[in-house]
């Protein structure tokens, strides 16, 4: 099955299915591919990591590195010592040594001290390293070829900004081309992240290209209209309505989203495509009129995109239709991370 999937009744929205890579680790497989090549070239067999024990980063990096015969030493933190997750199990079972702290600052200090005399590669949180770019380059080429095979003169690539490595790599690769890269802020405020861009580009070995603010989308809560001084959506915020929507989306498309990144972005993208603010969507739903949605020709009755939604992308100019009703095709990169949320679509029994 191709890594590029269309969404049936939405001919201008496509998914790059990196979530189909083993264990749903997605793009992190590609990031680590380049790092593994550097480890092999330098005969390095040990890696020191640090980060959240419940996060996708440590879960994927510890698993993949150990599978390639690398000894993994992990410094982790958790804000809830009683929380148990699948990611945590992966981190603990694939780290050769692990120290976990109840405070992020403490874990960071321990990592700083340990790296001084560490006989191997030391990776910062989220694995920021030039090797990640080596691993991503081939994917951007494959994506470009897939878009061009559909004979589109222009296209938009949308992906979330977590650490920022994938977005900055894509922005660098497609700079000056007919493919516009848009990043969706989920983990932190837009302005705060933009202030770190230069340093991130240096750490990743990328060209120092300024990022236009309009190419960074920021999710806001409760209302689809731009509001002065509106706080961005809280990272990791979950609610039952969103979980239910993800379940309906999966049943109609066979694409499993997760509630932290992809579930939020795709829901918001669909509403942007239909150019309907939240209050209009809810009003139409009350009247029994729902907008069409992916994979369902029955006018969205199975999973209406406006039902109890609480996030929006603030009407981005690049996602608008032309006066004749046409719009630039959108390609969304599903970067994986859904393995910890299988309970959204499968019964535990």
Quaternary structure state of the chains depicted = single chain
Strand order of the largest sheet: 1-2-12-7-8-9
Tell me the helix content: 25-40%
User: Which spans of ≥5 residues are poorly predicted at pLDDT below 50?
Assistant: 222-236, 276-310
Question: What gyration radius follows from the Cα positions, in whole Å?
Answer: 20 Å
* SSE arrangement, N to C: EEHEHEHEHEHEHEHHEEHHHEE
Q: Give a quick account of the main beta sheet: strands, pairing sense, barrel closure.
A: 6 strands, mixed
Give the overall shape: globular
- Number of continuous helical runs: 11
Distance between the termini: 29 Å
Protein described:
This protein is 36% helix and 17% strand. It contains 11 helices and 12 strands. It has helices at 27-41, 56-67, 86-94, 104-115, 130-149, 165-174, 190-194, 197-204, 240-253, 262-273, 278-286; strands at residues 4-7, 10-17, 46-52, 71-77, 97-101, 121-122, 155-161, 179-185, 216-218, 220-221, 311-312, 330-334. The strands form 3 sheets. A 6-stranded mixed β-sheet has the order 1-2-12-7-8-9, sandwiched between helices. A 4-stranded parallel β-sheet has the order 5-4-3-6. It has a two-stranded antiparallel sheet with strand order 10-11. Helix 1 crosses helix 2 (56-67). It starts with a strand and ends in a 15-residue tail after the last strand.
